[in-house]
Design goal:
The protein is an all-alpha fold and 481 residues long. It has helices at residues 5-17, 33-48, 52-55, 61-68, 72-89, 92-100, 102-119, 126-154, 159-187, 192-197, 199-213, 220-223, 273-282, 296-325, 330-342, 344-356, 362-381, 387-397, 400-410, 415-433, 435-447, 451-471. The longest helix has 30 residues, at 296-325. It is globular, with a radius of gyration of 21 Å.
């Protein structure tokens, strides 16, 4: 029977939580302490590789542009590639996992990351560089969607702890790539090609444990993924939002591809997995039809998610260049981006807890938006003099991402509802975020400065605030069904 990609996603997430025919006792656990340690190491190493392809590029964007003869407009296309790939290639992850098993697909994703990062330094022109980047980002997209499913499958009684490990690795990889790329480039002779290519080594190391873990090629019938699950009228979203109440912050630092925190019940974000698993298993397979595309709540959430994603990808792609054009050194610009990314580590744990205790999350949306506006204003007035302050403020503003995921969980009452809303908000949101970095590049190219691009970035904050306030009202998707 034909199923949509989002049906696959909902089924995949449910199957990872519920007992399967092949494994009557429930989700598969590590067969031995040795395998458990390998799985934990593989989880951490995979997480370390899910951001360097993006955050290593920003500090060297000027050198890449000069080396490839890339215009500001084309550089804008390059910085728009991540959300485009996440929206496009995320479609394939659930179906591939149904056929080959999540472990094998993540292994293939890491191989794609390694290959893409290895090929980028040998690109003789922009097209090849873009294609190699897209290959790496495709691997990131499918891995990012399936990692939470793997956590629930292999560590059903330690979902929170393992998601914390995954979160730490994700945040560490994001910040270290931003901070260390320029120093490593200098140490390797000053070539941007070497500075970008070295990250392929980290991906190759991460691939080693997954070559063993991928031998578990449990497919649809064996893991319960063939059953029909609740569909969603949106292409793809990270399965971790549906399991958010059992995990900590699986995305931090303003990074944007699935995972994250949330709470489906309005309780603390560190609720244990067994309760959520039991609730999922006990929930009826069918519920009232939710016409997600006609839901004002769903559209408000999608617009909020899209504009916060726009801000994050603009920051990762262009912020180092803004600082460099203001006279800040390349290495310091990379550190400033790392600071922005690192701000999300503590706040991604704190914000969901605060949001879960509020009936209306609009006040948090407004606070983050105002901090973002102050940060952009500071970049326009004194980009070099107040660089560290603006980086801190914009780092806090980029924490709208874990807040968005928390709100997705709080705006639904059922497992099917959270998967549908997550799928719609993230898929539509990522599509909405694609033009932003490109428009920044176009304005930068044609104006020759950062006044107009910064005005555009600040302008994006207005619909983000408005949509976030509307999405934060105390109601649920099922109320609109």
């Amino acid at each position: 029977m034909h199923t949509s990609p989002s049906d696959d996603l909902a089924t995949l997430d449910t199957a990872a939580s519920a007992p399967s025919p092949a494994e009557p006792g429930g989700p598969r656990r590590a067969a031995s302490p040795w395998r458990g340690r390998v799985m934990a190491a593989g989880l951490l190493l995979a997480a370390l590789n899910l951001r360097p392809a993006v955050t290593s590029l920003g500090p060297l964007l000027e050198e890449v542009r000069d080396g490839l003869g890339m215009s500001g407009t084309v550089a804008g296309v390059l910085t728009s590639v991540p959300p485009a790939c996440f929206a496009l290639f995320g479609f394939t992850a659930p179906r591939l996992a149904r056929r080959w098993g999540p472990g094998a697909v993540v292994c293939a994703g890491l191989a794609a990351i390694a290959a893409g990062l290895l090929l980028r330094p040998f690109a003789g022109g922009t097209v090849v560089f873009l294609a190699a980047s897209a290959l790496a980002l495709a691997g990131i997209a499918v891995s990012n969607v399936l990692m939470p499913v793997i956590v629930k499958r292999w560590f059903p009684d330690r979902v929170g702890a393992m998601t914390g490990l995954y979160s730490m690795g994700l945040s560490l990889g994001t910040a270290v790539a931003a901070a260390a790329t320029v120093p490593m480039t200098d140490a390797l002779g000053g070539s941007w090609r070497a500075g970008l290519g070295v990250w392929a080594l980290l991906a190759a190391v991460a691939l080693v444990p997954w070559l063993f873990l991928a031998r578990d090629r449990t497919s649809g019938a064996e893991s319960g993924l063939e059953a029909n699950g609740p569909g969603a009228n949106g292409p793809v979203a990270s399965a971790s939002v549906a399991s958010a109440s059992e995990a900590g912050a699986s995305e931090a630092g303003g990074s944007e591809t699935g995972g994250g925190t949330g709470t489906r019940t309005g309780t603390d974000t560190d609720t244990d997995a067994p309760a959520a698993v039991a609730e999922t298993a006990a929930a009826p397979a069918d519920g009232p039809a939710i016409r997600i595309a006609r839901s004002p709540l769903a559209w408000a959430m999608a617009v909020f998610f899209g504009f916060q994603a726009t801000a994050a990808y603009i920051s990762m792609g262009w912020m180092p260049q803004i600082f460099r054009d203001a006279g800040v050194s390349a290495s310091t610009s990379g550190l400033l981006l790392a600071v922005m990314m690192a701000m999300g580590v503590p706040l991604a744990f704190v914000l969901p807890r605060i949001a879960a205790r509020l009936r209306h999350q609009g006040v948090l949306v407004v606070i983050l938006g105002v901090l973002g506006l102050i940060g952009y204003g500071g970049l326009w007035l004194a980009p070099a003099e107040g660089a560290w302050l603006w980086a801190l403020l914009l780092g806090v503003a980029n924490c709208a991402f874990p807040l968005a995921l928390t709100m997705i969980g709080m705006r639904t009452r059922t497992h099917a509802g959270v998967v549908r809303l997550s799928a719609f908000a993230q898929s539509v949101g990522y599509l909405l975020s694609i033009p932003g970095p490109l428009l920044v590049g176009v304005l930068y190219q044609h104006s020759g400065g950062w006044g107009q691009p910064l005005a555009l970035m600040a302008g994006f904050m207005v619909p983000q605030i408005v949509a976030g306030v509307l999405a934060g009202r105390d109601r649920t998707l099922e109320d609109e069904g």
